[in-house]
Amino acid sequence: xxxxxxxxxxxxxxxxxxxxxxxxxxxxxxxxxxxxxxxxxxxxxxxxxxxxxxxxxxxxxxxxxxxxxxxxxxxxxxxxxxxxxxxxxxxxxxxxxxxxxxxxxxxxxxxxxxx
Length: 115
Description:
Layout: H1 41-53, E1 57-60, H2 69-78, E2 83-87, E3 99-102, H3 105-113
InterPro entries: DHS-like_NAD/FAD-binding_dom, NAD-dep_sirtuin_deacylases, Sirtuin, Sirtuin_cat_small_dom_sf, Ssirtuin_cat_dom
GO molecular function: histone deacetylase activity, NAD-dependent; NAD+ binding
Protein name: Deacetylase sirtuin-type domain-containing protein
């Protein structure tokens, strides 16, 4: 999270990314969902279909406490599909999963994928 008391945490509006379309130049929005926002139902349906058909699920760098995403991997694990969690620490869902790789994802994921 940004630290407001740190001087360089403030970014001027001019330095933020803007739309390059003619006559627009509005601020660009990152492709994320902010806390408190709803998720696009089409995306949730697409995610659900992908999860129904997967034969392995990787959970990388999440607290596993923000819903609805926090329910995806446990639902996959409940069907007997292996789930591998990569995280700096255990989460509330860790014990639902077949594999847990503890440590920085930048090193644990490449190491596990090279096996």
